[in-house]
């Protein structure tokens, strides 16, 4: 077996991709299949005052319509468990699902959507996190007290710490501060979100999904459909690019509800435009850093406050803020760290997981801090990173013990590839041996 | 009102009914079950739906089906000879010129058109020619290398 380690092997399923035989979800065309088009909110925030689907329902070729009252089980889903499949009343972002029309083809379904009679009372939205945190800000959720996500009831800040940052700052000859921001980003896989659902020969609801994580979603779907998991056949495995965007349900819930209601095979696929505008995103992060460092370059304290824009729903954002906190001090040994994370709701499409999943949102500012520290102390940036890099046995802010550290080895390789000659004393370092500068880590208080 | 349409698809004559607004992509995928060409954007930006129209690469999502009357359409399904892969297919597979594979059918058709017209392209010519085929997984370098390898004769018929 081990002779294959390190070798580049052709993919076991690669011939399927190279011949066009691989079946992606939208490649399934079933006899008698009907198609879904949806009505999305044209406004960022508002209240539905009137919704009449009868003209859509009476359109020739339309099989039927769906709205909140057609959800057989729980009309809530997502990693945060807070997003309705079809919103019954309150609109929290532009593009929020309100209703769906099922027709013999997409054009017919779209014709039905255009005939939906809807009146929305538009309200003032909030898009900026700091605006959303002001006491008089419009509430994304009218029934809540603020736009801050509650990690636990009443708890809106997730704190992690190791050591004591104030003690650390007291030892520091230099304090370097900075505010950093990372922007919103869409995954834009070439395969848009799509779903095919039908009742199989055993009356199970079969769904061909683009999901990246079937077992994150199966339970959510069972709750939406009001079915035991044994009555759902969730078929996945072929994904035309996901990058984290297919960790959230975008189409399977609607296709499944339609298949259950109408007893026909159903396809729901988002257009590229829908996919880009309304699918989950990488959310905005703003991070404030205060880093304490000794004259010799030893990092002694890091205090990080971070704000994560969740959009209208929780999704993986609360977890994303925690994950960012865990790695926002980079692969560096700092005995005293405190992170304070808040997740803020705004009237935008929900943010959720995307490649590297909020880790680099903390890595980038930490590297910028090191750049500033190098300027402030006059210490070479390579030296600064080498002496502070994790060694085996170090602890991060969430108090895990680092094993198999590799930052030093990675930096040596990077220098080599970039044609940079590192000094001998840095080349002599490795991730198994503590550096001479390092003091004892502060006792961990549990 | 649908009209009769006759053309040659991957070497075989086809007679179908097509609506005046129907795209070649819809006809191939929804009516004929030829799902190699993919619907990535449906507006001509991404190249996943690329097929050959009398040997020239076209976006099938922007091609009205009725305009291909009497012409020859080749999709990725028409590349291999039975189980014998086309050299480009072999090179893409063996060199890992894709990750999710969604762009691959379009990439292969663009690449075939390039090599049919210019058997020894420079790297620059490959990059220019393939610029209309997007790959979000980022397999561009392997795609270029696979095409170069085929041009260099490393993959024979």
How would you describe this structure to a colleague?
The complex is a heterodimer of chains A (446) and B (157). Chain A is an alpha+beta fold and 446 residues long. Chain A has two domains: 24-123 and 188-278, Aldehyde oxidase/xanthine dehydrogenase, a/b hammerhead (Aldehyde Oxidoreductase, domain 3); 158-185 and 281-427, Aldehyde oxidase/xanthine dehydrogenase, molybdopterin binding domain (Aldehyde Oxidoreductase, domain 4). Helix content of chain A is 25%, strand content 22%. Chain A is built from 13 helices and 15 strands. The longest helix of chain A has 18 residues, at 360-377. Chain B is of the alpha+beta class. Chain B has two domains: 3-78, Beta-grasp domain (Ubiquitin-like (UB roll)), CATH 3.10.20.30; 87-151, DNA polymerase, domain 1 (Orthogonal Bundle). Chain B is built from five helices and five strands. Chain B has helices spanning 24-31, 87-94, 104-117, 123-130, 140-151; strands spanning 3-9, 12-18, 50-53, 56-59, 72-74. Chain B has a five-stranded mixed beta sheet, covered by helices on one side. In chain B, strand 1 and strand 2 (12-18) form a beta hairpin. In chain B, helix 2 (87-94) packs across helix 5 (140-151). The mean pLDDT of chain B is 97. At the A-B interface, helix 1 of A face helix 2 and helix 3 of B.
List the helices and strands and how they pair.
The complex is a heterodimer of chains A (446) and B (157).
Chain A: H1 14-19, E1 34-40, E2 46-52, H2 54-57, E3 62-67, E4 90-91, E5 97-103, H3 106-114, E6 117-122, H4 129-132, E7 158-162, H5 165-171, E8 174-182, E9 194-199, E10 205-209, H6 214-225, E11 232-235, H7 252-262, E12 266-269, H8 272-278, E13 285-293, E14 299-311, H9 317-327, E15 336-345, H10 360-377, H11 381-388, H12 407-417, H13 424-427
Chain B: E1 3-9, E2 12-18, H1 24-31, E3 50-53, E4 56-59, E5 72-74, H2 87-94, H3 104-117, H4 123-130, H5 140-151
Helix pairs in contact in B: 2-5
